[in-house]
Amino acid sequence: MNERESRAWRGLIAVTQLLPAALDARLQRDAQLTHFEFGVLTILHTMRGPAMRMTELAEATNATLPRLSNVCSRLEKRGLIERSPCADDRRATNVGLTTAGRRALIHSIPDHIATVRSVVVDALSEEQLDALADITDTIIERLASLDDAAPPPAASRTAR
Length: 160
Fold this sequence. Notes:
Elements: H1 3-31, H2 35-46, E1 52-53, H3 54-61, H4 65-77, E2 81-85, E3 93-97, H5 99-119, H6 126-145
Antiparallel strand pairs: 1-3, 2-3
């Protein structure tokens, strides 16, 4: 790599390592949630219907089933979600948000948005935000093309 390429690569790696840690620290302090747990609760909150299959939730969160299962166990112990057998397929498990989970998510959203604004959005101009969205879309598409059998990550399916 030349210096320009190396600088861009090192910057991307630093952001992918530092940003999740910063979001986790703030969410842990303010809402006793990790950023991943916040994402799980958000997806469950925005879904249609009372529950979704674990496999669908894993896809939507870009997580493996074992990781998601561990996180769901923690959330279930805290009363934030509930799991139940799927009526259509006894091998599958459904996950739904509880009232306490909905309350915890809604309580955590304003502080989380303030953190995201402070750390990322307010630090960039409108042009830089557009460029960041284009850059991440391009990288996500490239990552999805590495395995044509896999659906694109959830982040690339969200509207800007």
